[in-house]
Amino acid sequence: MRHKVKELMTGLSEIAVIDENSTLFEAVLEIDMARTRRPDGMRCPAAVVVDQERKVGGFLEFRTLLRGLEPRLDEFIESAKKGGFSPDKIGLELQKYGLRDDALDGLCHKAGEILIKSLMTVPEESQITNAEDSINEAIYQMIVSGHDYLFVRDGQALAGVISLSDIMSHICDTVKACRI
Predict the structure, then answer these.
(1) Contacts of 175 (CB under 8 A, 6+ apart)
(2) Is the pTM of this model over 0.85?
(3) What was the pLDDT predicted at 180?
(4) Are the CB atoms for 108 and 25 separated by under 8 Å?
(5) Residue 166 burial (10 A CB sphere; 0-12, 13-18, 19+)
(6) Mind listing the pLDDT tens digit for each residue in 43-65?
(7) Most buried residue, 9, 17, 65, 75, by most Cβ within 10 Å?
(8) What pairs with residue 44 in β-bridges?
């Protein structure tokens, strides 16, 4: 049976939707509300960011959210890439950039100042799929593009997100049903 993306995707009602003018503080509260709506936690590693007209303007990846808490991380990452990522090397780099302190120090203050629009990313075409596409197409698109999730469009409107987690759940269920 050929499954479609819309059958496995996570719908917008289950994803945090954040206004681009929100602070990180407000965004985290919305992400937490979305997380608690699902008994199995969040499957989507991003939140949808909308403009004042509620049109999708981009997304906020949780990894980017964490990087936004410590702006010097970009400089650290570039330096660390040159020397590799061994635990010793990372420790030296953290010390060099003064990042050994708890990254969450001053979290409340930082979260109240950082605007989501400064952290959001506009999806590339390679990160968008259609609701009617087959799961196989979505899998190949993720593999080739290197993305862990794709935004799902139904016509011109955003309908949800399909992630590796959604696909792996389907694969696990399919394999468990096999009679070998």
Answers:
(1) none
(2) no
(3) 78
(4) yes
(5) buried
(6) 666 788 988 887 778 888 877 88
(7) 9
(8) none
